[in-house]
Design goal:
Layout lengths: L1 H25 L16 E6 L7 H16 L4 E6 L7 H10 L4 E5 H4 L18 H9 L1 H8 L7 E16 L6 H5 L2 E4 L3 H10 L2 E4 L5 H7 L4 E5 H6 L8 E3 L5 E9 H6 L2 H35 L3 E3 L3 H22 L1 H11 L2
Parallel strand pairs: 1-2, 1-3, 5-6, 5-7, 8-10
Antiparallel strand pairs: 3-9, 4-7, 4-8, 4-9
Helix pairs in contact: 2-12, 8-13, 13-14
């Protein structure tokens, strides 16, 4: 009886420790915890994102956090919340406008829900390569209208990072437009994407990202409109083992800030925050290029087939997309769109 009681006591002690260890192990963000105590900060900047920080364009949030803490000498804490901790993108956009959330790394596909002008970066074959993205960001004539494009919504576009060029991850190889016609693509909940796929005459399903794994497994969808970085890191290639390198747009995270909150921040801290965001975003765009190459190589090693459409098929997609560009040009501003296309050679 005595041994039984001792065993129960030991079990009672062990169980909480085991639960705590399991919970710690399950925490997907354990590796990104700050090595400082933010409780003494005078100001807090809550920054939201829906994706995982292992993607360089998301992990920038933590690099911004640490650099701002250092540069502000502990006065400003960037409370970065990835993995949709604060909700889906449409919900967070609403919170951002109200000021309940101060910042957001919005996906480029969702950014057009803030204002039409931001849809320019998701139009087919406009900002479609890494080099064009750098030109777009570093040319005042193309960047400043974009940066100021959400002023009426009380928001500032501080900078952009990315997650690579878009293509098609499919369960059967798509080597031509004819193959694509037989595929049901999942696309994001975004107006530009919907218009583009309608123009291309392709079958598509608008679906929230969390629903994608089961939909792929069950065959509800047979293709996924996304980037190789995301598809490999999130293990979509375990089911969709082919990737057509369409390269029609760069997947971006648009760093949006609530202007009312920013303007209330002391001027020196405004400068620290915006300077760090610019520096870390520029560095991250370089890291994203490297991550794309690494993830494509890893996917190929795992047996994923990478495919390129013929030049004729690409030209057909560009031609069929022109009405989309015209429609969105009227929303964005035809002169601005024309200037961007001219500067980028798109």
């Amino acid at each position: 009886m005595k041994k039984f009681i001792i065993a129960l006591l030991l079990l009672a002690i062990a169980i909480p420790g085991g639960i705590m260890a399991a919970e710690k192990k399950k925490n997907p963000l354990a590796a990104w915890q700050p090595d400082f105590d933010p409780s003494g900060a005078e100001y807090t900047y809550i920054l939201s994102n829906i994706s995982h920080p292992v993607i360089e364009g998301v992990g920038v949030g933590y690099r911004i956090r640490d650099k701002v803490w250092e540069k502000s000498k502990g006065r400003l804490y960037v409370d970065f919340r990835p993995l949709a901790q604060l909700g889906g993108e449409k919900d967070v956009i609403s919170k951002l406008k109200l000021g309940a959330v101060q910042g957001m790394l919005s996906s480029s596909v969702a950014a057009a829900n803030i204002t039409d002008l931001l849809g320019i970066v998701n139009l087919p074959y406009v900002v479609d390569t890494f080099d064009k993205l750098d030109t777009f960001r570093n040319t005042p004539e193309t960047w400043e209208p974009f940066s100021n494009g959400a002023q009426k919504q009380g928001l500032l576009i501080a900078d952009i990072t990315g997650y690579g060029p878009y293509g098609w991850a499919t369960t059967s190889p798509v080597k031509s437009i004819a193959d694509a016609k037989g595929t049901n693509f999942r696309i994001a909940e975004a107006p530009v994407n919907t218009d583009t796929y309608k123009a291309w005459g392709l079958k598509f399903t608008v679906m929230p990202w969390p629903d994608v794994p089961q939909a792929l497994q069950t065959g509800v969808i047979t293709g996924l409109d996304h980037t190789a970085i995301v598809c490999n890191i999130t293990k979509k290639f375990t089911i969709a083992k082919s990737f057509t390198e369409l390269n029609y747009a760069q997947g971006l995270f648009v760093h949006v800030i609530n202007k009312r909150w920013l303007n209330k921040l002391p001027k020196d801290l405004q400068d620290v925050l915006l300077t760090v965001i610019a520096e870390e975003s520029a560095a991250t765009r370089i890291l994203t290029r490297k991550q794309h190459d690494v993830q494509v190589a890893k996917a190929k090693e795992a047996g994923v087939q990478f495919i390129q459409l013929s030049d004729g098929d690409i030209e057909q997609l560009k031609l069929e997309a022109e009405p989309v560009l015209k429609k969105w040009g009227e929303k964005i501003g035809l002169d601005y769109l024309a200037k961007v296309r001219e500067k980028l050679g798109s």
